[in-house]
Structure formats: structure tokens, C-alpha cells
């Protein structure tokens, strides 16, 4: 990440392959819009993926277990579950288990698949296991379809060592 200097024009930091080249405003805006959209869905995908994991492992997902695994209060989980219900991703009743809808299950599977590719890619390029696990958790939400396809192609290449 580029160092920030007092008074530095931050539109120059690491946004171009040439350090002193300024991106066109439309390109710059498009990049930031993509990141904002990814941030918006990141937490939702994390919850949906965790609910899928708990459902698959235990047959159900309960708010108390979600809170424990996300390291948040149950009130935070309740608020998020309302958001997920509004989006049609989960069904639940007060004091009962949470279940994914077909749409929620689909989102969880897509997120799991992206995560698996990113993690395998990071391992393949030599990223240490702990860092790969941590980084894959964030990158999976921000990676474009084009980059994910490139990672898949890279992983299918025969080992040249």
C-alpha cells in the first residue's frame, strides 16, 4: 500500500501501473463504485455462508451460535437476520433456528466456490497458510469474475518445476 504523505494527492496512490499517471475520472469512479458494492454485500455473504456451514454441520443455525462464531452480540445477529429476511435469503421465527432460502443457499454456494478458488490460488503462489486463510476471507468478496477466471486458469496449468 502506498505511503500517505501530508498534502499528497491521494488520487495518485496505486491506482495506475505508472506512479505519476492520473486515471480518468470515470475509471477512478468505476473502481470505487465496485469496491463500495463489494463492501455492501461482504457481511451479508459472510453471514449466509456461516448459516450454510452450520446448517450443513448441525442441521440448523441458531442465532447464539452465529453470534459466537462471528464474535458479535446476539442483538447484532438479530439485526442482520432481519436484513437477510428482507432480502429473501433466510427464514426464521423468534427463538427458533435460521434456515436459508433457495436464494440464500445459492449465494452461500457461490461465496464458498469463490473462497475455495482464491484460497487455492494464494496457496499455489506460496502465500503462507495463515495469511492465505485470512486473505481469502476478504478477497473472495472483492474479486471480479475476470480475475477469478484467471485464477482458475492459473490453477489448471501444469506445474513447471
Automatic annotation (TrEMBL):
GO MF annotations, alphabetized: DNA binding; DNA-binding transcription factor activity; protein dimerization activity; transition metal ion binding
CC per GO annotation: cytoplasm
HTH dtxR-type domain: residues covered: 41-101
Subcellular location: Cytoplasm
Positions in coiled-coil regions: none
Xref: Gene3D superfamilies: Iron dependent repressor, metal binding and dimerisation domain, Winged helix-like DNA-binding domain superfamily/Winged helix DNA-binding domain
InterPro entries: DtxR_MntR_Metal-Reg (IPR050536), Fe_dep_repressor (IPR001367), Fe_dep_repressor_sf (IPR036421), HTH_DTXR (IPR022687), HTH_MarR-typ (IPR000835), Iron_dep_repressor (IPR022689), WH-like_DNA-bd_sf (IPR036388), WH_DNA-bd_sf (IPR036390)
Region Disordered: start-end pairs: 1-23
Subunit structure: Homodimer.
Family of this protein: Belongs to the DtxR/MntR family.
Task of the protein: In the presence of manganese, represses expression of mntH and mntS. Up-regulates expression of mntP.
UniProt protein name: Transcriptional regulator MntR
Organism of derivation: Ferruginivarius sediminum
